[in-house]
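Hi R.,

As promised, here are both runs. First protein below:
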Amino acid sequence: MIIDGTRLVVTDNSGAKEVECIKTRGRFASIGDVITCSVKKAIKGKVSQVRRPVPQAMRLRLALPLALPALPT
């Protein structure tokens, strides 16, 4: 669950290392939801490229497995 102000580790090739969630669509965001974020830490040399514009992000991975409810058969 992601709420406004949550810091997330980035795992892509954009140059950003850590982002902070600025806005979610609703009360909170879960896996697969799009959020608006702000870059807090970046790789040296890519800071100016990563900071503008404000990036949109989608959460794709979790540290722990996602427990899905059982489907009726």
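And here is the second one, sequence first, then its structure tokens:
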Amino acid sequence: MAITLELTPEIEARLIAQAKAQGMSAEDFLKAAIENLLSAEPQVYRVGTALVVQSTPIGNLETSVEQMRAERLSGLIADYESPV
């Protein structure tokens, strides 16, 4: 399937720069980005009368959560090890 997109010059430049940074062509970069986006779609299902939405964190959110966990753990360890 072929799809044509009209991009602003700014978006086109960012796309090309990101693709080059990954060592990819713009076309391959877009294909990978679309595949990642589609694989991150939430799954919706019912459990009894509840509607459950299951999704995977993407990019910065996942990194932020891991960073917060690490900071909390460091704080707990510091509190535990410090004399009262």
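A quick note on the second one: The radius of gyration is 21 Å. Let me know what you think.

Best,
J.
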